[in-house]
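In response to the reviewer comment on reproducibility (Comment 2.3), we provide here a single inverse folding case reported in full, input and output, so that an independent group could reproduce the run without further information from us. The structure tokens appear first.
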């Protein structure tokens, strides 16, 4: 007789997954959703991403992630969650409130209130971001190429709308300090003259650094360049270069910032106006004889008290050991009896 096939139970039916709720689609987030999540304007979001070093990502299957739309910009979800805990977001909001109050005071003709607000202007500091992005000094030196090129460019440009007024002077100072270090250590290896400018290559603590410096000509400011975005890069690069210059000067035991010879600076000497001075080692002042005698007496008294305490502890430990040995002897005798 034909045998019936064994009974095969149906597989357990799981809950059907909704489209876009699992897989690659959950790893990416669009820019508009990220802006709403962080509660920032688009300009502040771009600035925050530039400072933190977070850039857009391209999914492998863009249609599946964007539900058919291919003109969206995406970021990693983990990057946006990382930005949500950044203290700079609060600084951006404080600056927005400050600008609103300042405009209201200026519009109502209240100069004293405007001066008071200017004195309490929130300051954005990027020190923690530099330490976060470059945990080791070698990493910062390795990433100096773009920073030096940007700083040398703005050191030659006139005042540009969208860039703070004192940024040009800071760039020139940082460039002179860096060049002064290169000359002092003789780290320059190669130089190349091109149409764009002068290419330099130096070796700093075992790392090869290459940058370009424009010629000292009058520059034509292009109209199709967004200097607001470039100013954000420049703000971070100036902070990074200041940290690097400080560490390089300290490694040679040189004073930073280097002192400036005002007479040479007025004469337009340039690099020759910076003076390389070694840091003065602070020498301990000689103690008064009576004070020194008093300290020696206090030290000897402390040593004597410590010795007495140690002898007391040792005596108590010996007494405990003797009592324990006698107890063991008595117990052994009783057991033998």
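Designed residues, in position order:
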């Amino acid at each position: 007789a034909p045998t019936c096939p064994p009974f095969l139970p149906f597989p357990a039916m799981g809950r059907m997954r909704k489209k876009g709720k699992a897989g690659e689609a959950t790893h990416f987030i669009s820019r508009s959703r990220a802006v709403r999540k962080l509660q920032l304007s688009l300009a502040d979001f771009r600035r925050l991403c530039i400072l933190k070093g977070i850039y857009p990502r391209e999914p492998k299957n863009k249609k599946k992630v964007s539900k058919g739309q291919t003109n969206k910009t995406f970021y990693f979800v983990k990057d946006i969650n990382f930005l949500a805990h950044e203290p700079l977001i609060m600084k951006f909001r404080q600056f927005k409130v400050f600008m609103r109050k300042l405009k209201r005071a200026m519009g109502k003709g209240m100069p004293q209130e405007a001066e008071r607000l200017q004195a309490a202007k929130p300051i954005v500091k990027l020190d923690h971001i530099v330490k976060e992005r470059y945990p080791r000094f070698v990493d910062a030196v390795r990433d100096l190429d773009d920073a030096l090129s940007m700083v040398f460019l703005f050191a030659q440009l006139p005042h540009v709308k969208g860039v703070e007024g004192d940024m040009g002077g800071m760039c020139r100072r940082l460039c002179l300090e860096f060049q002064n270090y290169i000359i002092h250590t003789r780290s320059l290896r190669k130089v190349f003259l091109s149409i764009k400018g002068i290419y330099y290559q130096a070796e700093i603590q075992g790392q090869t650094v290459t940058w370009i410096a424009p010629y000292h000509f009058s520059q034509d400011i292009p109209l199709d360049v967004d200097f607001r975005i470039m100013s954000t890069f420049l703000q971070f690069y100036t902070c990074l270069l200041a940290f690097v210059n400080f560490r390089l000067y300290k490694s040679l035991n040189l004073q930073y910032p280097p002192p400036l010879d005002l007479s040479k600076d007025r004469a337009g000497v340039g690099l020759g106006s910076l003076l390389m001075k070694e840091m003065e080692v602070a020498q301990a002042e000689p103690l008064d004889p009576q004070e020194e005698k008093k300290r020696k007496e206090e030290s000897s008294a402390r040593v004597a008290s410590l010795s007495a305490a140690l002898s007391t502890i040792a005596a108590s430990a010996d007494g405990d050991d003797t009592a324990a040995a006698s107890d063991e002897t008595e117990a052994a005798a009783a057991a033998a009896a």
